[in-house]
Amino acid sequence: MITLVLGTRPEIIKFSPVIRAAEAATIDYCVIHTGQHYSFEMDQVFFAELDLPAPTFNLDVGSGTHAVQTGAIMAGVERVLMEKNCSEVLVQGDTNTVLAGALAAKKLQIRVGHVEAGLRSFDRTMPEEINRVVADHIADHLFAPTETSRSNLLAEGIADDTITVTGNTIVDALYQNREIAEEKCSTLQAMGLESRDYLLATFHRAENVDNQVRLAGVLEGLARVHADTGLPVIVPVHPRTAKMIDQFNLDPKGVTLVPPQGFLEFLQLEAEAALVLTDSGGVQEETCILKVPCVTLRENTERPETITVGANLLAGTDPARIEQAAAMMLGRTRDWVNPFGDGKAGERILQVCTAELER
Ligand code: UD1
Ligand code: UDP
């Protein structure tokens, strides 16, 4: 049996094509939800909108410091794996769920497959970079989304025959849900927005929102972009960001704060935006695929393909740089080519796993 371990918003979304493919091919699989994300709008909404079966197990781990959360996930995943006859555990991305799921499985000598392997920001102050590096170095199957990520793995001495370049499953998720979003939602209408006549922004990275100067810088940058363009700036607020805006007593101006959106609603907001500003990994990829210009509110990115093709610009959190980058990217012609694959990554990943099962 193949066990998928997931626990956060991006993992549910990016694993959805793998789950759909496993269902379609009647592959024996189960899902362990760690409960790292648990608020309705960070969790259940995606199972409902993406029509996914309920997770087989839910560990209900919740929030905590890195060690507390990682330790609790490890103990919970180990408990389930010891009861089940599981031959491969799949993890996706770079969260604490990934680190803990991969470690727990590997120590039980169960094969580990890392989906979205080989991404590197080369910034080890980011918790996500630590999680990715560890997961990559203990995994048996490395599913790299691009040749760039494959090269990163080879440069670290990882064996070539363990790496498969699959594309990123987010392409599959976008292709599978774009039309469904159009059929089911009228998000722009509901928010009183016109196509290409608004900006969309998301930010939640610990290094940005847990730091008062950087968070205030992002908010000031967005306020200036709003003043420069006269366009509404829609900000679906991650719970971590909401907590820190409150804690630092900040009063965001010139932006429209809205709750975290469902995937279908967010997809519509992204696809029709004049420009997206973000510190999210997934949103950098999605804007690139949807041909919407992006400004990244970070000093580095583990998605350099988006910069190379001209879809994305790094701006950090300094208000003047954000303003400048937004002006540049608003004038960008949307003529780049999607570097993240053809939308069949989910099937490729399962092919590798099932071929191994049959050996
Ligand atoms: C985590 C990941 C990050 C990923 C993000 C996706 C790690 C180290 N970080 O960050 O890489 O980009 O998920 O969104 O794994 N909270 C809620 N409800 C929830 C979840 C969180 O209110 O459902 C609040 C809690 O106050 C919590 C805080 O958000 O303390 C942070 O949650 P946590 O899961 O620790 O990290 P994220 O910032 O969500
Ligand atoms: N997303 C969403 N609703 C929102 C914001 C983001 O559905 O209000 C989706 C987005 O389309 C992408 C994923 O969440 O697929 C990105 O998650 P997040 O930014 O939380 O994490 P990261 O990708 O940075 O790890």
UniProtKB/TrEMBL annotation:
The keyword Iron-sulfur does not apply. Signal peptide: none annotated. GO terms for molecular function: UDP-N-acetylglucosamine 2-epimerase activity. Keywords: Isomerase. It comes from the Archaea. This is UDP-N-acetylglucosamine 2-epimerase. It is an enzyme of class 5 (isomerase). It comes from Methanosphaerula palustris (strain ATCC BAA-1556 / DSM 19958 / E1-9c). The keyword Isomerase applies. Residues 23-352 form the UDP-N-acetylglucosamine 2-epimerase domain. It holds the Pfam family Epimerase_2. Its EC number is 5.1.3.14.
